[in-house]
Specification:
- The chain is mostly helical and about 80 residues long.
- The model has no long low-confidence stretch (mean pLDDT about 85).
- The protein has a domain of about 35 residues.
Length: about 80
Amino acid sequence: MFTFRTSITFAVMAFIAALAALLIFIQFWTFHLAAKEAASARMDAASAETLGCFEETACRLIVRHDSIEAIGKERLPAPKDLG
């Protein structure tokens, strides 16, 4: 059997080891949450950027379509009366 001094030493060492393990777990979990939040923020930024590019491209296509349609109407001959 262990002496009192040895038992106290093992108890203190076990307590310190448990605190160290808890600290490592908290650091790991905090890093995990921070990385998850950073990835989420990056995806939100990429999504907003993609949406902006899509809207810009859609606006350009609408303007081109409208201008081509206007040019086509200018070049078409006037409709004739069939009556």
